[in-house]
Amino acid sequence: MTAIATNDAWMTSRLELLDAEKAFQRARDELAEKRRALPWRKINADYVFEGEFGSRSLSDLFDARSQLVVYHFMYHPDWAEGCKSCSFWADSYDGMIPHLRARDVSFAVISRGPLDKLLAYRDRMDWKFPWLSSADNSFNYDFNVSFTEEQIESKDARYNYRVSDNPGPELPGLSVFAKGDEEQVFHTYSTYARGLDNLNPVYQILDLVPKGRDEDKLPYPMDWVRRHDEY
C-alpha cells in the first residue's frame, strides 16, 4: 500500500521530487540541443506520394515552410485497418498542426497502404491531418519502417539503427526534414520505438497518476490500447 503522509511530510517528499524533476528537465533540454546539432544529410531520391489533392513530392509537403515532420504510420497495403498503436498516437495530431505551422513546421503522415484505404480510415477516425501514400516509392523502406519478406526471413532488417531479429513488415517512426537555401531537402533526424513515447500526450498524463501506465501485467505494454471508436 502507498504510504500516507502528513501535509508537512508530503511537502518534504514533493520538494525532493521537484529537484529531481528540474534536473531531468535540464538534462532533457541539453539532449534537445544535441539533437538539433546533428549534421544534416541531403535527400537525393525523388520521392512522389499520392495524396487526396494529387501527387506531391517530398519538397511539396513543406508547404512553403522550411521544416517538415513526417510520422511513419503503420498501414500495410493488405491490412483492413491502420495500426491501433499508431492510431493512439495520431489522435493528437490535428490539434497540434496549427501550432506547428505557426512555428514554420509542416506535418504529414505517410503510409505504404493505398490512398483509398488511408482516407477511408481517416474518415472513420474523424481525423483531418494530411495523409499520403508511399505505395509507389521506396520511402518507407529507405527510412527503415517497412521491410521486405527477404529482410524478415533473413533476420537482417535494421530498425532503430540496429539489426532487428523480428521486425514484422511495418513499424512506426518519425522523421524530420529541413530545406536548405537552394530548396534542397535534408534529413535531420528520425526516431523509432520508445523514442516516440514523448510524442504521446496520453502516456505523458498516465505517467502522472498513481497507477502510471499500469502495463506490467499485460501480455505486451499496449495490449490495452484500442482505436478510440472501439472502447
Plain-language structure description:
With about 230 residues, this protein is of the alpha+beta class. The chain has a domain at about 40-200: 3-Layer(aba) Sandwich (Glutaredoxin), CATH 3.40.30. It is about 30% helix and about 20% strand. The protein contains 7 helices and 10 strands. It has helices at about 5-35, 85-90, 95-100, 115-125, 140, 150-155, 200-205; strands at about 40, 50, 55, 65-70, 105-110, 130-135, 155-160, 160-165, 175-180, 185-190. Strands 1-10-9-4-5-6 form a 6-stranded mixed β-sheet. Strands 2-3 form a two-stranded antiparallel sheet. Strands 7-8 form a two-stranded antiparallel ribbon. The model has no long low-confidence stretch (mean pLDDT about 95).
